[in-house]
Every structure is written in C-alpha cells, then in structure tokens.
Amino acid sequence: MTLIRFNADRLRNLQAVALQPSPRVNLLHGANGSGKTSLLEAIHLLGLARSFRSTKLAPVIQHEQASCTVFGQVRLPGGQDCNLGIQRERGGDYQIRINGENARSAAQLAEVLPLQLINPDGFRLLEGSPKIRRQFLDWGVFHEEQRFLPLWQRLQKALRQRNHWLRRGKIDPAAQAAWDQELALASAEIDGFRQAYIQRLKPEFTAVLAELIQLDGLTLSYYRGWDRERDLREVLADSLPRDLQLGHTQAGPQRADLRIRIGNHNAADILSRGQQKLVVCALRIAQGRLVNQVKRGQCVYLIDDLPSELDEGHRLALCRLLEALECQVFITCVERETLQAAWRPETEVSVFHVEHGHIKQTHTSGSQA
C-alpha cells in the first residue's frame, strides 16, 4: 500500500497540508517544534482514526477549531486506488469514509493502510506493560488471519459479561458455565493464532536483528496468559474465589505477554537506549516482512527522529533494511544531511522542509526523479 496523496486541515500547528509523497522514502527535516511529528500524527490518524501522541483530542485539533480532517488516496497492490477520509470532532465524535461510504470501524482503515510506528516512545514495547506487547502481537495476527477480529470481539464480550457478574458478586451458575465456556473456546482459538504467528515472527526477527546488531542470548518467547498445561475452564474454576475478590478475570489471553529477554533478565533492564531502539526496529521490520508475504502489499512506516540514539553505522544499516522492504517510509530528523545520503542512488527520496507548520518539498532524487 502506498499513500499517493495526503491532505490535512486544522491539525495541531500544521498549515493546510497537501502532499504527493514519494512511494519510497520521504524525509521530513526541520527544527524541533516545526510540525514534523504532527505530520506523522496526521498520517497515523488516517490509518487508525486516533493519535499516537495523545489519548485526548483537544491537543490534536487546532485551537478554537471544532474539528480536524485528514484525507488520503492509497494505491493498493493491484493498482487500484482507495480514498480514505477522517473527521474528528472536539467533542469526541468521528466520521470515517472509505471510497465515499461511511465505514463501521477503524479496523477497516487499518486493513487498507497498515502502519508501523517507530518513535521515541517505542521503548515502551520493551519496558512498558504487557498490554503494549499484546497490541503489537495482535496487530500482526490481525493482518494475517481474517478470523482474528471477530474472534477477538467474541472474547471481549465474554470477558465483559464475566467481569460484570464478578463485580456484582452474584453468581448465576448457569450463566457462569455458559460464559466460561464461551471464554474458553474463544481463548483457545486466539491462543492458537498467536502461537502460530510467533513461530513465523521469530526467524524473521532473528534475521533482521542480525543485520542491525549482535546481541548474544536475546530470546523472544510467548506467555499465553494461563498455565500452558491446563485447560482454561479448569483454571477459571480454580481461580473463581480470587476473581470474585478482585472483581475481574485473572487468567486468559487478556493477560498474554511477549517476553523479550537476555538470559533470565528482561532485555529492557540490560540493553542501552541505542540497543533497545535497534531491537524495537527489528521487531517492527520483521512484522513488515510478514505482512508483505501475506498481503502482497507493504506497510507504511512512520519513523520519528530516526537518528536519535543511533550512530552513523546503525543508521545506515536501518536504512538498508527499510530499502529492502520496498515500502513507503516517512522519516523525520532535524538535519537532513544525517539521512539524505544514507540511501542507494536508485532509491527514490523526496525531501520536505518543515518550518512553522508549513511543509515544502525541496528535493527529489532516485529512479523516479
């Protein structure tokens, strides 16, 4: 998938944006606070209907404006074009349009425009809560397995029902048995999808990481959220007194985790910031490779401040891996010289200068120039 046109209006400090990006590398440079990250945020809004910088809409929409809008034209792998549009209201409402029709959910956007984000908060994938790693894992499964989303929705419904009567402290044995059964069935299928995905991800991750850095003893493993030797229904029955006390379900795929370790230690406790960034980049690029294999299309990568934490050699290695994906990339930096020469001569690179919210294309090089 390639974003061939992009427009944004009334979003943060950006002036009205109208871009025709390169299908390969788009380099955005400018001083801190100029609007580079806001442009990445606008593209993220187009692909997921939400910001990666804030859970609140107020900072995203320009001051004294009631809403912001983003529009994009996406070139699909078969050559067709798909038009996406999002309007977010300050009050929280939003409208999603795909080819002129109202869309039901943001999942439809993600299907058309799969995004991979690498930004300064990316360290949270290693050192943050298990929820962040589950989201990473489920993003990959969603793009490989069409049955995953409705199954995940079944799981959420069963969990809500079970947690509701746990909080009330009043148990209907028949309802308990029914929802425990539904929870166990959905959980087993989701666990199967996740395990299969991890088995495909591991060799890709190992290969990508080896091209970036040598880290002896680093392992990737999956914890499913309950004892691997026991059926979930048995675990739910045994944990019922404790679940009632806490008011929520403790065991299940909602507690799953992707564990990244060096020996017996969490990788985040051992690695430097630069090493952590390379591990996160390897995970994201490995996911992109798997998406390419399954969907014949490419992720769009949003990389905020790529040079930070990395020396010249590692920056060059990362750029080479991104080139090999043959995907569309949007990268921000302060000084364009740190990255403009990092690409092969045949790679199409468009350079944009961002200043006080204005975005101006200044240079294009490569095979399509």
Automatic annotation (TrEMBL):
Binding of ATP, residues: 30-37
Gene Ontology cellular-component terms listed: cytoplasm
Gene that encodes the chain: recF
Protein name: DNA replication and repair protein RecF
One GO BP annotation of this record: SOS response
UniProt keyword terms in alphabetical order: ATP-binding, Cytoplasm, DNA damage, DNA repair, DNA replication, DNA-binding, Nucleotide-binding, SOS response
Cell location: Cytoplasm
InterPro entries xref list: DNA-binding_RecF, DNA-binding_RecF_CS, P-loop_NTPase, RecF/RecN/SMC_N, RecF_2
Functional description taken from the UniProt entry: The RecF protein is involved in DNA metabolism; it is required for DNA replication and normal SOS inducibility. RecF binds preferentially to single-stranded, linear DNA. It also seems to bind ATP.
Chain ranges of the RecF/RecN/SMC N-terminal domain: 5-359
PANTHER family: DNA REPLICATION AND REPAIR PROTEIN RECF (PTHR32182)
Source species of the chain: Ectopseudomonas oleovorans (Pseudomonas oleovorans)
Chief place of localization: cytoplasm
